[in-house]
Amino acid sequence: MIISEKAILSGSGTLTSSLSGAGTISPGQGIGTLTIQNASPQKLHFEIDGVQADHLVSTGILDLSNTTLSWSAQNLTEVIYPIITYNSLIDGFRNTNNPPPGYLFDYNYQGNKIALIRAEDAYQVWSEQTHALSGGNALFEADPDLDGIPNGLEFFSGSNPAKFTKTHPLKASRISSSTSVSYPISSLGQATLFRLQSSTDLINWDDSFPEVNYLPLEKKNTTMVQALVNPPKISFFHLTRPVSSASFINLKACAPFSFHCPSDPFLCPCSILTQSRR
After folding, report:
1. What gap in Å lies between CA 9 and CA 139, rounded to an integer?
2. What are phi and psi for residue 126, nearest 5 degrees?
3. How far is CA 151 from the centre of its chain?
4. Less crowded by CB within 10 Å, the N or C end of the chain?
């Protein structure tokens, strides 16, 4: 089924044909659930009112890479709003798709759902519900899978804290007299504060990369993080700076939202990941 540019497909129920076209898919008439098969929608509209939200179910292949989102959202009271259930997801939202203020996209909620997660509760939902961690294993600085990557950095980078991660997410290399650094950031990782530092002796650390001392959400310096404001499921950040003497790079992620923290948010519970520059 092709939805023409000015058309709106709305309502609840089940469609057995694949959907495409420049028109809008809007589950429900008011709040409702629409079930489809394969789809690469160009426009999606969701309504949220209090404890209820529209829901789209895809039983086939869903591609959201070219989708533009719009919202009718009011009285948002819930920590979690599942909005999409998928069988196979090719890509997450790109372009300039913002969730409602104060919320983030979780592309792996309950394993096969896209949900809006209230930012201040994002780490708790991710650790306790998505990955079933509890007690000391759920702490931001814990490492229950013993892969050397603390939970906070798994949350930040989009990996699984209950499954050994073989690939080190922080990459650092020497390019002439400069240092090149790259690391992934998940959609939920925006709920953290993070700082990139360098050292020659693993004892004294300095902020050689002050522009990546980002603040979360609307507190970010939008000029510096324009590419990261609305990442798809995982974005990769690359940075090269003339830091010739540093032998080690430190990525420090802290969780100010979920904890009572002092005035300096980097004194909150943090996860630290160190990589040598080669």
Report:
1. 44
2. -60, -45
3. 15
4. C
